[in-house]
Amino acid sequence: QVHLEESGGGLVQPGDSLRLTCAASGRPFSPITMGWFRQAPGQKRTFVAAINWKDGNTYYADAVKGRFTISRDSAENTLTLQMNGLQPGDMAVYFCAAAVFSTNYDYWGQGTQVTVAS
Predict the structure, then answer these.
(1) Is the dihedral of CA 4, 65, 54, 71 positive or negative?
(2) Cα separation of 2 and 117, whole Å?
(3) How far apart are CA 12 and CA 91, in angstroms?
(4) What is the pLDDT of residue 60?
(5) pLDDT for residue 109
(6) What is the spatial distance between Cα 19 and Cα 80, in angstroms, rounded to a whole number?
(7) Strand 18-26 relative to strand 78-83, pairing
(8) CA-to-CA distance for 110 and 74, rounded, in angstroms?
(9) How far is the C-alpha of 5 from the C-alpha of 62, rounded, in Å?
(10) Which of 24, 50, 86, 102 is 20 to 30 A away from residue 33, measured at CA?
């Protein structure tokens, strides 16, 4: 079993930055991919960014390209999301997820709230 725990959410003003972290623990951890998703109130959970754990290739949703950066620390089993230029449209609960057995995401964290308001 893998446990994922997000941290780093909070209340910021438009234009500010936040850095989210996802710490993985449990079984020996060697995912295929890890990703960030978000869910705004009343909306479906949507893809934000993902990273191939082995080669570090990254993928972004169009809405966050150029503003968000995903990275991983394989030694520490942590995933980060640096979010710059936050806007009210970025306000959501952010979840990290790990694809371990296939390209489908098998494990999810509980989420961390990001609020953007002036």
Answers:
(1) negative
(2) 34
(3) 10
(4) 98
(5) 98
(6) 7
(7) antiparallel
(8) 21
(9) 25
(10) 86
Distance CA 68, CA 5 (A): 20
Tokens encoding 48: 């934000």
Contact predicate 71/80, CB 8 Å: yes
- For the stretch 32-85, pLDDT in tens is 999 999 999 999 999 999 999 999 999 999 999 999 999 999 999 999 999 999
pLDDT in tens, 89-111: 999 999 999 999 988 999 999 99
pLDDT at 113 over 90: yes
CA atoms within 13 A on the CB side of 86: 23
Per the structure block, which two tokens stand in for 69? 């950066």
DSSP 8-state secondary structure symbol assigned to residue 89 = G
